[in-house]
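User: Earlier you gave me the apo prediction for this protein. Now I'd like the version with pyridoxal-5'-phosphate bound, so I can compare the two side by side. Same sequence as before, with the ligand SMILES added.
Assistant: Got it. Here's the input I'm using:
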Amino acid sequence: MPQAMTKHPTDSARTATRLVNAGRRGEWTGTEGNPGRVVTPPVWRASTHLYPDMAAMKAESGRNEDGRFYYGRRGAPTQWALAEALTELEPGAAGTVLYPSGVAALAGALMTVLKAGDVLLITDNAYDPTRALGRGLLTDFGVETRFFDPLDPVAFEAAICPRARAVLLEAPGSLTMEMEDVPLLAAIARRHGMISIVDNTWASPLGFQPLTHGVDISVMSLTKHVGGHSDLMMGSAAAGPEIYPALRRRAQALGQVVSPDDAALALRGLRTLGVRLERESASALAIAGWLAARPEVAAVLCPMLPGAPGHDLWRRDFTGGCGLFSFVLKGGDAAARARFIDALALFGIGYSWGGFESLVVPVDPAPIRAVTPWPLAGMDAADRFGVRLSIGLEDPADLIADLERGFAAITAG
Ligand SMILES: *Cc1c(COP(=O)(O)O)cnc(C)c1O
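And here is the structure of the complex with pyridoxal-5'-phosphate:
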């Protein structure tokens, strides 16, 4: 199938144009001799792939690449189109592996680079299920996990020992929004012969390009921004030519495969990713600024907001953001925060983020932090009731009016 190996016409295009064209190869959107007849790659439901004859079966054996028919566990054009589109959007990537969830992608990346006896360093602002992978599954397989302060590169380097093999970063951390210096930490890791992995779900490669900043593996929960409509679970890991083949082999060994229906939905979400992130970021910034002036708010944790923690690093390294940020109520108690959240009509109460609709959850990281405190350094100990907002595509004026109702409910109680 030499046509599948030809360069796609979007190779030199800018990001917005790539989002429209990526993954739409003629042979995936048409028939043989009649390529590119529909816009979007159809859903190819397939376990068995058929060979025309024995010679073709023999010729294909050992050709383990996307774009080559073999068996359903290696995907078919719908999954290949999504993986190729993600690779086109990730500068420095040689390929992208799809997983059935973001957690599966993190597990797949970690299980690719670690073996028994290794030490894994995890940033203390990481997503809780990521921490659980280190403390649970990896510990059972003989890997030792240690946590480090995301804001202290000196402490990070001091935690590195000869057995340290990999570091897992998340910038900004998706609860407390602490922004680590990813290029610096990745450079330190590389100097010590370690592999760096970043959970880049918050920014997506539209807002931050990890592989061009010295990171080895870029992981995303596609459940969030790429899906974008709160109706699918998926994850991805992208890497350069040294690591991508190992990621792929390990994912295949673990039997990881995503359904073609979900891949088609993720591909649909990807087409509007740029405009959604732009709109959500602009609304989030307006709402974060409004919150910062409220007397009930002790701190706004939004790296996109000038003056907020992490803003300088965000401005230096990132080209975009998203609608997800947190804030901390001044004093109060859990009941006051519950009144605030319950009074909101436009924010759904639920886990996840990055959908077209706004969401809210309470933020209580104290019990999960390993080496750094909550409230964060510099915050008053009384100000510990956090709230995380995922700003969707509603009119921000309506969202602000909704939040005003929440604040009124605090005092009414
Ligand atoms: C949600 C999330 C994940 C996990 O993704 P799932 O698709 O829910 O498994 C990983 N990292 C971050 C930062 C997340 O918010």
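For your comparison, keep in mind: The pocket of pyridoxal-5'-phosphate is lined by residues 101-103, 127, 170, 174, 199, 201, 221, 223-224, 233, 235 (CB under 6 Å).
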